[in-house]
Amino acid sequence: MAQPYVNEKYYKEEYEGTEVESEKFPRFSKRSTELIDALTEYQIPKIGLDKFSENVQELIKKACCAQIEYYQVEGIEVDITGTPKSTLSYSIGDYSYSASGGASSRQGNRAAPSCLMFLEGTGLLRKRSVRIGVI
Question: How many angstroms separate the CA atoms of 70 and 111, rounded?
Fold first, then answer.
């Protein structure tokens, strides 16, 4: 398995992301790298990160950081359930609250919108005309 695309120093000093506990960072970084690899159809490990231009390498690292930050804010469980904390509903007595994340499927919530934005700039995401949803 490939090394994570970012280390904690890059995340803190270059990206300046939301604070992540040091003991959680390796897990978040590894999961983020795995998600980015899946989203880009494993082109990055096939080609090698160092083979891309500096600009594309930077966008990949930012995408990884954005996903790490998403895990910190929404919870790592989003990687399993596809449901971020911000889309949950709850009730207390007569009061009820419901929030929606705007994605049409639970799996669409697994990737941070900013992660996808950075990856879009790399040209590594394939445009698809067929949309498959989870029932």
Answer: 8
Residue type at position 76: I
Give per-residue burial for 112-132: e unless 16+ CB within 10 Å, then b: beebbebbeebebeeeeeeee
> pLDDT tens-digit profile of 90-135?
455 555 445 544 444 444 578 999 999 999 999 999 865 555 556 5
**Phi/psi at 13 (nearest 5 deg)?**
-90, -40
Q: Find how far residue 29's CA is from the centre of its chain.
A: 10
The pTM of the whole model exceeds 0.70 = yes
CA separation (Å) from 111 to 46, 72, 92, 106? 21, 13, 30, 10
Domain ranges, ordered by start, for the chain: 8-120
